[in-house]
From TrEMBL:
It comes from the Eukaryota. One of its GO terms (molecular function) is serine-type endopeptidase activity. Belongs to the peptidase S8 family. The keyword Membrane does not apply. The keyword Thylakoid does not apply. This is Subtilisin-like protease.
Length: 779
């Protein structure tokens, strides 16, 4: 038997503070067991997962005995073994076991499992130009690409998941379908839904056994709707007459890659999930052989974890697992988050999450489609709003009250009632009325529970125009902007018996301008996680009022969120992968980024929905995806695993930390590499006040015409000179690589702060565009 003994000094220095924090937390806490994710060093004798699992069981047994002679080790405490994306396990541990494991040299880090509550189409293909372009036929609609979706499961009966037009399942597929409550592998899996699994041990350790009486299914079946919606957005097959309510958005619904295969990994239960389960789902998806992973969920590392101190990439276990997936060739598309501008007090920190450079980070935009509806006030004023999903509107004049005036106990609940939070509204005041509030949660269920009959969902933001419908509501609802909110409040104040009518939606309207615009909720950069070196989000895609498959009695559902934007990019990546099987995940992302547009339908810089002002690369990254151009980008900025390892070297991580990402990592190069030279398809440079210039090297790979000559151009910025050398690149063959240097020089009169420019390479056919963010000032 191996004795595991060690001291903190054997751990990399950066880890000590984490361990000490955990130590404090656990010794002060009760003796109850908690779930931990234990990140282990690679052990070369663990060639397969069963050897590894046996060793982890031994390790837990030793830890139990060492910690407490009286305790019997419990075999069930080992929950998940991570084998394909990183090494480690999750388990229920006592504080003594935690202390013991922390001191063992094979342990890289232990993280208390975190539970997350928030999980973060018919028209969007046309809006992105897919429907009449070449990419669909050229990629055969993504057939034979496998998209893994880690989410709330799937409602398999929806026509979106039919397999009528599909050939046999790709032979390399190694995944399975698991049967369970209301989900039968033989009945529900097919040539479209080729895999379905669930992961719940972390969830159950925290919340107890899944309560099926409460409507959850202990199987891949979706009880929430989110996963069904995202999966069908990425790869739903054709299904006609997709609409919600009375004819809203009528059309043909299909995902971005209508023939791609779907593998479902359910890791959310009652809309909650545990990091331990998410990581197990990602690990399994990679083992099963997915090509694309769609993760509409927050990073396990987020600002809600003060216990882990300043955000660092190596503390983010999802980033570590994603690294392992990328190394195996998987394209990862993740949500930027739904925090909008919140907690972004100044320009040095943003709200964007999922920011590792091997992740594609997707923000949300509007499309040009709206569903108009009216609020008619009792005094005759008509206010234009947008229809919610549940469009059985209230044609009769109905009493109206503001949620703020309907609090159960206004001294306690005033603000919450303004937001129609659960259990804050007085049934005596609300019964039979339309309630105006700002819906934040539960689709307005509090109004229904208090006996209300309709909702005016009024935006709280000063300028938002109310286009972002939160979701399908439980009652007839019209969504209006903040100006309307003021008028309606005044009207309510002005009369003893306010009334209103929610009027029939007029026809669905297209060509709303300007479009796209960045959604109010879409999380913004700069990335808070670790120094300034990569612009995040990378890109924006449609994420407002997206219609896709629904669950239970709802054939279709309309949802908004970066969760809806992410599967658009997952599906597009699948199409590009099918059209260009040899492209790396980084090449696919580069193609999506350098062909994106920063202009809207007014030919102006894409605006922000909350203010109408022009956005920046910290709002929309490289811009709004244009799939038809992405399939023929001309040039790509490619990245290999070695480049990503060099990136970690650039962050000056010590060798132990770098090996935590990649056990095969060689030593960092002797001559330090500059982070500015990381071959990312966008540029972010800092010029301290003590310096007058900086430069960034990049290498382009020719994937367009064999012979082509590209000329560089940059957009002018006051007091900044950007020089590209050489300014012309001539290619004589496919896959040929050419390097260039971008030098940014500033004058003394340049104001401190952030400045924006862009670089475009063009051969007359292709335009390869990258944002340049220049930060002048401290550091
Ligand atoms: C690797 O695992 C084996 C058991 O599978 C164990 O005996 C050995 O001590 C481990 N090596 C290290 C360095 O942890
Ligand atoms: C789930 O299965 C039970 C028992 O067979 C059945 O009564 C119920 O209708 C099913 N629910 C759904 C949503 O399919
Ligand atoms: C900006 O935010 C950072 C991080 O929260 C903080 O350290 C800094 O003091 C802030 N600067 C200003 C000018 O508010
Ligand atoms: C609307 O008002 C008319 C006339 O008062 C009434 O007949 C009808 O039942 C009302 N409709 C609803 C849905 O309350
Ligand atoms: C409202 O809440 C306050 C503070 O908790 C309490 O003192 C008061 O009794 C409550 N009033 C009612 C009507 O429940
Ligand atoms: C409504 O009336 C209340 C008190 O009568 C007042 O405090 C409030 O400012 C008024 N609101 C508006 C929007 O007129
Ligand atoms: C109805 O009331 C609102 C709020 O006081 C006011 O702005 C509007 O002009 C009124 N409409 C009519 C027709 O009087
Ligand atoms: C868009 O604006 C640019 C200048 O910002 C101009 O060169 C271009 O011609 C415009 N395009 C269209 C279609 O109006
Ligand atoms: C550029 O320099 C001029 C002075 O030459 C100064 O007035 C202006 O504020 C500077 N603009 C920026 C964006 O730095």
């Amino acid at each position: 038997m191996v004795r595991l003994r060690g001291t903190f000094t054997l751990l990399p220095p950066l880890l000590v503070s984490v361990c000490l924090l955990l130590w404090t937390e656990t010794t002060l806490g009760s003796a109850h067991k908690s779930t931990y994710i234990v990140h282990m060093e690679r052990n070369s004798s663990h060639t397969d997962i069963s050897i590894k699992a046996a060793w982890y069981r031994d390790l837990l047994r030793i830890a139990t005995l060492e910690a407490d002679q009286l305790l019997e080790p419990d075999e069930d405490d080992l929950h998940h073994v991570y084998h394909h994306t990183f090494d480690g396990f999750s388990a229920l541990l006592t504080p003594q076991q935690v202390a013991y494991l922390q001191s063992s040299p094979q342990v890289i880090q232990l993280q208390r499992d975190t539970l997350h509550k928030e999980i973060h189409t018919t028209h969007s293909p046309e809006f992105m130009g897919l429907a009449d372009g070449h990419l669909w036929p050229e990629s055969n609609y993504g057939e034979d690409v496998i998209i893994g979706v880690v989410d709330t499961g799937v409602w398999p009966e929806r026509p979106s998941f039919g397999d009528q037009q599909l050939g046999p399942i790709p032979s390399r597929w190694k995944g399975i379908c698991e049967s369970g409550t209301n989900f039968s592998a033989s009945e529900h899996c097919n040539r479209k839904l080729i895999g379905a699994r669930s992961f719940y041990k972390g969830y159950e350790a925290e919340y107890g056994v899944i309560d099926e009486a409460g409507g959850e299914y202990k199987s891949p079946r979706d009880s929430e709707g989110h996963g069904t919606h995202t999966a069908s957005t990425a790869a739903g097959t054709w299904s006609h007459m997709a609409s919600v309510g009375p004819g809203l958005g009528l059309g043909t619904a299909r995902g971005m890659a209508p023939k791609a295969r779907l593998a479902i990994y359910k890791a959310f239960w009652n809309a909650r999930n545990s990091d331990a389960d998410t990581l197990a789902a990602v690990d399994q998806a990679v083992a099963d052989g997915v090509d694309v992973l769609s993760l509409s969920l927050g990073s396990p590392y987020d600002q809600a974890r003060p216990d882990i101190g300043r955000p660092q990439l190596w503390k983010d276990m999802l980033a570590i697992a994603a690294y392992g997936a990328m190394k195996k060739g998987v394209f990862l598309s993740l949500t930027a988050g739904n925090e909008g501008l919140k907690d972004r007090p100044n320009q040095t920190t943003g709200t964007v999450n999922n920011v590792a450079p091997w992740m594609t980070t997707v923000g949300a935009s509007t499309t040009d489609r709206i569903f108009p509806a009216d609020v008619v006030l009792g005094n005759g004023t008509v206010i234009q709003g947008k229809s919610g999903l549940n469009s059985k509107l209230l044609e009769n004049m109905t009493s109206l009250i503001s949620g703020c005036d309907a609090a159960k106990n206004s001294s306690v609940n005033y603000l919450k009632a303004c937001l129609c939070y659960p259990d804050t509204l007085s049934p005596a005041l609300v019964r039979g009325k339309i309630v105006m509030c700002t819906i934040q949660v539960d689709k307005g269920a509090a109004v229904l529970e208090a006996g209300g009959v309709g909702i005016i969902d009024a935006s709280w933001f000063t300028q938002g125009d109310g286009i972002e419908i939160q979701s399908d509501y439980v009652l007839p609802t019209v969504r209006v902007g903040a100006t309307a909110r003021r008028i309606i409040t005044e009207y309510i104040n002005s009369t003893n018996s306010p009334t209103a009518q929610l009027r029939d939606p007029r026809q669905t309207q297209y060509n709303r301008a300007p479009a796209p615009a960045v959604a109010t909720f879409s999380s913004r950069g700069p990335s808070y996680a670790y120094s300034w070196n990569v612009i995040k989000p990378d890109i924006i895609a449609p994420g407002v009022n997206i219609i896709a498959a629904g669950i239970k009695e709802k054939q279709y559902a309309m949802n908004s969120g970066t969760s809806m934007a992410c599967p658009h990019v997952s599906g597009l990546a699948a199409l590009l992968k099918a059209a260009h099987p040899t492209w790396s995940p980084a090449a696919i992302r580069s193609a999506l980024m350098t062909t994106a547009t920063t202009k809207d339908s007014n030919n102006a810089t894409i605006t922000l929905l909350e203010s109408g002002q022009s956005g920046t690369p910290f709002d929309f990254g490289s811009g709004f995806v244009r799939p038809e151009r992405a399939t023929d980008p001309g040039l790509v900025y490619d990245l290999s695993t070695g480049d990503y390892l060099n990136y970690l070297c650039m962050l000056r991580y010590p060798p132990q930390i770098i090996r935590a990402f990649d056990a095969d990592a060689p030593a960092c190069p002797a001559t330090p590499i500059r982070v500015e030279d990381f071959n990312y398809p966008s540029f972010l440079v800092t010029i301290p006040v003590s310096e007058a210039s900086t430069h960034a090297d990049r290498t382009l790979t020719n994937v367009g015409s064999a012979r082509a000559t590209y000329v560089a151009s940059v957009t002018d910025v006051a007091n900044i000179t950007i020089d590209v050398h050489p300014p012309i690149l001539s290619f004589n063959g496919l896959n040929e690589k050419k390097s260039f240097t971008l030098t940014v020089s500033v004058t003394n009169s340049l104001e401190d702060g952030i400045h924006y420019s862009s670089l475009t390479w063009s051969d007359g056919v292709h335009t390869v565009q990258s944002p340049i963010v220049i930060r002048r000032g401290s550091e």
